[in-house]
Amino acid sequence: MRVLIQRVKSASINTNTQVIEHIGKGILLFTGFTQTDTTDIVDKIVSKILKLRIFEDEDHKTNLSVNDVSADILSVSQFTLYANLKGYNRPSFTSCLEYNEASELFTYFNNKLKESSLNVKCGIFGSDILVNIVNDGPFTIILDSLSI
Q1: Annotated catalytic residue: which of 6, 55, 78, 106?
Q2: Which of 6, 19, 41, 57 could serve as 28's disulfide partner, Cβ 3.0–4.6 Å?
Q3: Tens digit of pLDDT for each residue in 105-124?
Q4: Catalytic annotation on 140?
Q5: Residues 39-94: pLDDT tens digits?
Q6: pTM of the entire predicted model
Q7: Active-site annotation holds for 38
């Protein structure tokens, strides 16, 4: 499982004609799954995200978590995080988890985030959307299940 985490001042996901979801200060999560991912891995990743200290305290040190600042979360599925470019110019996505299984894990992931009582908004799995981001920092982290 890979999650690209961006600290944002605001973010929204849109179709060509309307806003689907919007958040204020918080984090935008782009989430991808691979064949070895399980609910246990999702649980570990969610725990790490909720404890990740990426917001500034009164001394401008990144000591505060999303829980500490009651930040919003916008979660978007992003299978391209598992693009393989080794030996290719065109990305290969053979390491991505199969669509139905990935959809189930994405739903599980979002439900676990919602247990935090934070304002969690979710994209529609597999949909073609526009993402608008006001990146804060910029502050971007890649969290990979192999590194936790």
Answers
A1: 78
A2: 6
A3: 999 999 999 999 999 999 99
A4: no
A5: 999 999 999 999 999 999 999 999 999 999 999 999 999 999 999 999 879 999 99
A6: 0.95
A7: no
Domain 2-147 bears CATH identifier 3.40.50.720: no
Catalytic residue among 30, 55, 79, 125: 79
Q: Looking at 15-69, which runs of residues are DSSP E strands? A: 19-23, 26-32, 55-56, 62-64
For 119-143, b where at least 16 C-beta lie within 10 A, e where not — what string? ebbbbebeeebeeeeeebeeeeeeb
Residue whose structure tokens are 């199969």: 98
80 is catalytic: yes
Q: Where are the domains of the chain?
A: 2-147
